[in-house]
Structure formats: structure tokens, C-alpha cells
Amino acid sequence: MVDQATSNSNNGSDASAPQATDRLVLSDADRAAIARRSRVGLFWALAAQAFMALLVVLGAWGVAGKDAGASAFIGAAAYFVPNTLFALRLLLGYFGPKRPGSLAFFWGEALKLLAVAGVVVLVAWRWSGWLVWPAFLLGLLGVMKGYVVLLALRRLP
To answer: Which residues make Cβ contacts (< 8 Å) with residue 65, sequence separation at least 6?
Structure first.
């Protein structure tokens, strides 16, 4: 094993600067704190999305009537339900013996987006006669951008 002080003095860099060979070592307490923060962050994100959904649905209903409110609700649910299922899947992975990896996250995200696209197509096919498209899209976008509430409250995980 090479001594850090020897290798640092050889290349002329500062001894306190991190080297490419340095590894981050986390204690069990550090890992538990990071996992807890991740779980709490998921709940905060879902709560912010639910708040935005409620805000958009009530706004659409108050401004344009019950069809707009129902359209905004369907739009919000089109993203909120698959996102909640994905978050629950991630949370269940934290409690298991093996933590979810990055590949599971990306496949879950892809399946979530495909589910959202499928719901949008289904809604357009089945309810296009009475659906208020601006309210539907505002409901969808409101939930998608729910993290803006967390940014405003400085609660972003």
C-alpha cells in the first residue's frame, strides 16, 4: 500500500486535497440517516404533489365549473397514482434486505411514464367529448411540478 503523504508530495498537490484513490466510507449511522432522509423526502414529494392537485382541482372547479374540476382531477390522478405506486415500490425496497439499485429506479421511472402516457391516451379516447383539456393539462402539470412547493418552502430533500 502506498503512503498518502508520499504520493501527495510526489505530484506536488496539496496534502489535504482529496485524491482519486480516496474512497468515501460511510458508517452504519450515516447510511441509516441517508436512507431515512430519502424516505422522508419521498413522503414530502407526494404531499406536495397532492397539495398541488388539490389546488389545481379547486381552482379549475371554481373558475370553470364541475367539468373543468373533474378534468383537472383526472389529469392530476393520471400522474399522481402511478407516481405514488412508484414511490411505494421504492419505499418497500428500503425495508427489504437489499436496497433498490439505480437500474430498478430507472426501469420504475420508465414504467411510470408509460403508465401516465397510457392513461392520457385512454382519457382522450374515452372522455374527449366532455373533457376540458386546459384543466386536464393543468392538473397533470400541476402534479408533475409539485416539487416547486418544496422549493418554495425550502423542504426539498
So the answer is: none
Q: What is the pLDDT of residues 38-94, one digit of tens each?
A: 667 778 788 888 998 999 999 999 998 899 999 999 999 999 999 998 888 877 776
Q: Are 11 and 116 in contact (CB under 8 A)?
A: no
**Residues for the chain: how many in total?**
157
pLDDT digits (tens, 9 = 90+) for 112-152: 899 999 999 999 898 888 888 999 999 999 998 887 777 77
- 39 close to 137: Cβ distance less than 8 angstroms: no
Query: What's the CA gap between 10 and 29, in Å, rounded?
Result: 36
DSSP string spanning 109-125? HHHHHHHHHHHHHHHHH
Residue 60 buriedness (CB in 10 A; 0-12 / 13-18 / 19+): buried
DSSP alpha helix (H) spans, the chain = 4-11, 28-64, 66-95, 102-127, 133-144, 147-152
